[in-house]
Amino acid sequence: MTDPVVRTELLIRAPIERVFEAFVDPDITARFWFSRGTTRLAEGTELEWHWEMYGASTLVKVLAIESNRLIRIDWDIENEPTRVEWRFSEFKPGQTWVEIENYGFAGDSEKKMVSALDATGGFALVLAGAKIWLEHGIEPDFVLDRHPHARAEAWKEK
Question: Which of 2, 5, 61, 80 lies 20 to 30 A from 108 at CA?
Answer without folding.
Answer: 61
